[in-house]
Each structure stands twice: as structure tokens, then as C-alpha cells.
Amino acid sequence: LSEEQKKLYKETFAPQKETLLKELYDASSAKGYVHIFSVLSKLKQICNHPVMINKDFENYTKYRSGKWDLFIERLQEALDSGQKVVVFTQYLDMMDLIERYLSDKKIGFAEIRGSTRNRREQIEKFRDDPSCLVFVASLQAAGAGIELTSASVVIHYDRWWNPAKENQATDRVH
User: What would the mean pLDDT of 135-140 be, rounded to a whole number?
Assistant: First the structure.
């Protein structure tokens, strides 16, 4: 984590730590698993990139993220070796950030998210257009029922809660 991410992480977790731990260890109280899941989800977003929290997408390059830096490195390695890449994420804001980066770098991409109406068109663009190098997908929207075999690299930007769902998504490529 970058220093900024560490700060956001602590600011998010510290105020809720005592309440969450007390709730978990109290056998007599009902467990607020939805609340726990919400906190975990926010912490995952902080680990992805600070703009997932501060929503300053326009200035994303001002913020540091170790995970983002590694992603860019892996993506560039794949593209430099002539491979097409599929990137899955569970967060639509993360898709927006990845697509902004790809646009800024003039890297051709296609995408599928839950709201995508022209799914076939996006899949064909990725498969048939040699300048379309990256397919960015919501894990929920593209994890099943489509074929992305023109790619040879799969990146799961953030891990899904269910590994079987990730495996199913990866199988879209193989």
C-alpha cells in the first residue's frame, strides 16, 4: 500500500474496529455480517486505488497505489509481447479507472458491464480488431456465457469472494 492508501485504510477501519470485534465475539448478539461485508468491500477498494474512495478519477495519476503500479507493469509486459489481455474486476468504478488509463495511453479496448446492451459487438470487436488489445469486464457481467479465446492473459484486478466464480471467468479465455 502507498502511504495514502495506508492512511485511508486506517481511517476506514480504526473507527469501526472495536464495534466489529465486539459484535463478532459477543455470542449473544446478532451478527451484522452485511456491515462487516461493507467494511471489507471498502477496504478492498482502498487497496485497489485511492480514487475508488475519493472519486477523483480525472486526476488519478496524482495518487499512488502499489496494486495499480503492478497492474500497469503486468499489462505492459503482456502487450509488449503481443498478447491480448482480459481484465476482470468486481467494481464498476475500477472499470472506469482502467478504461480511462487505456484511453489516455491510446490502447484499444472493449468492455462488458451489466448495462452493456451490445455484448456481441464488444466481443467481436475484441476478437476481430487487431488494435483492440484489452477486454475490460465486470466479473458479474462477463464471468459466464461468453468466449474470449483471442486473449492469452487474464488479470483479476481484485479477487472475488467466490474462487469458483473467478475460475469460471478465467475459463472464458481458455
Answer: 88
**φ, ψ at 83 (rounded to 5°):** -100, 145
Residue among 87, 102, 90, 69 nearest 165 (CA): 90
pTM: 0.86
- 108-121 average pLDDT score: 90
In whole angstroms, what is the distance from residue 159 CA to residue 63 CA?
22
Residue 10's φ and ψ, nearest 5 degrees, are -65, -40
Per mean pLDDT, which range of 8-17, 46-55, 120-129 is the poorest? 8-17
Residue 31 confidence (pLDDT): 61
Q: Measured between alpha carbons, how far is residue 160 from residues 88, 103, 169 in Å?
A: 10, 26, 10
Name beta bridge partners: 134: 85, 109
With left for phi above 0 and alpha for psi between -120 and 50, is residue 129 left, alpha or beta? Answer: beta
In angstroms, the CA 133 to CA 151 distance is 8
Q: How far apart (Å, rounded) are the C-alpha atoms in residues 2 and 47?
A: 9
Q: What is the predicted pLDDT for the residue at 26?
A: 73
First to last CA, the chain: 32
pLDDT value, residue 76: 98
